[in-house]
Amino acid sequence: MEKQNTNPDFIILAEKIESLSPLILSEWQKNVLTNLEKRKKETFIILLDHMPEILNSLVDSLKQGSRDDIELAKAHGFQRAVLTQFDITDILNEFSLLRETLISYLYPIGSLEGACYLHWYIDSLSKNSVLEFINTLSANSNRVNTPTEKAEPLSQSFS
Fold this sequence. Notes:
Elements: H1 8-35, H2 38-41, H3 44-47, H4 51-64, H5 70-83, H6 88-106, H7 112-140
Helix pairs in contact: 1-4, 1-6, 5-7, 6-7
């Protein structure tokens, strides 16, 4: 049985993200396209791949209080390393723009605790995506050194 979050602010945030998900994704997509270099726009069809899943995962995490989404983050980083011309900066920009888009739609809904959770969640996803991106590239070429830090599960509880 899944744990339910008892913090009403988290439930409100989850429901708002869920209801605005198509708008959030559309705005995020527009922002990323605006910020990508022309040569990288050719692989844009891949761009939207994990973001609906990431938003759904965030909604579930807010409702449940904690969730381990390391595999989703790793899949995102792996895909960026193998199927795109993205670099680490592009991955970080993707998550930064997701954060900005979420905040623009969610502010001033929720509490400081909910905002902190949102930031922590996106930071964890971006960190684990970048680590997987580096690990994938270093396993396939000599361009990047293997990082000493290992990916960490998303396991902090904010309920």
